[in-house]
Amino acid sequence: QLQVVESGGGLVQPGGSLRLSCAASGFSVNYYWIGWFRQAPGKEREGVSCISSSAGSTNYADSVKGRFTTSRDNAKNTVYLQMNSLQPEDTGVYYCAAVYRTYGLCSFVQANYRYWGQGTQVTVSS
Q1: Are 12 and 124 spatial neighbours (Cβ–Cβ below 8 Å)?
Q2: 104 φ/ψ angles, rounded to the nearest 5 degrees
Q3: Facing residues of 24 across strands?
Q4: Apex CA 106: angle with CA 67 and CA 109, to 5°?
Q5: What is d(CA 87, CA 96) in angstroms, rounded to the nearest whole number?
Q6: Is 72 exposed, middle or buried (0-12, 13-18, 19+ CB in 10 A)?
Q7: Contact (Cβ atoms closer than 8 angstroms) between residue 54 and residue 77
Q8: Tens digit of pLDDT per residue, the chain (126 long)?
Q9: If you ran DSSP here, which 8-state letter would residue 65 be given?
Q10: Residue 91 phi/psi, 5° resolution?
């Protein structure tokens, strides 16, 4: 069974950091696009970051560029989202999602992603 499971969320003060993990099972992350999405209270879910298969090119939403970094550990079959300089507007439920795609730069089109995790809550507050 193919699945992804997020972890690492929590409460952090503005300016702080968190690292989210997306652990995959049943497939190799090296052959999949892995996307990070978030949904703030009362808002639609939006794309935050993603990492392409093979060479691992990354893509970031303008709102997180320079603050968030996505990386992949093939040995652990896990994708990470390092979040620095967190702000209250980064609060939300963060989801990772996967789709089998061995070419191209990953995108934030949610309909492209087939496997979704349950999400992990990130709260940025003083």
Answers
A1: yes
A2: 80, 170
A3: 4
A4: 95
A5: 20
A6: buried
A7: no
A8: 999 999 999 999 999 999 999 999 999 999 999 999 999 999 999 999 999 998 889 999 999 999 999 999 999 999 999 999 999 999 999 999 999 999 899 999 999 999 999 999 999 999
A9: T
A10: -65, 140
CA distance to 24, 33, 40, 94, 118, per residue, from 125 (Å): 30, 31, 14, 16, 23
Comparing CA positions, the residue from 26, 16, 37, 48 lying closest to residue 100 is: 26
Q: For 103, what's the count of Cα atoms within 13 Å in the CB-facing half-sphere? A: 0
* CA distances to 4, 11, 123 from 35, in Å: 11, 22, 20
In the 3-class helix/strand/coil scheme, how is 81-123 assigned residue by residue?
EEECCCCHHHCEEEEEEEEECCCCCCCCCHHHCCEECCCEEEE
| Secondary structure E strands in 3-100 | 3-7, 10-12, 18-25, 32-39, 46-51, 58-60, 68-73, 78-83, 92-100
Q: How many CA within 13 A on the CB side of residue 64?
A: 25
Beta bridge partners of 96: 36
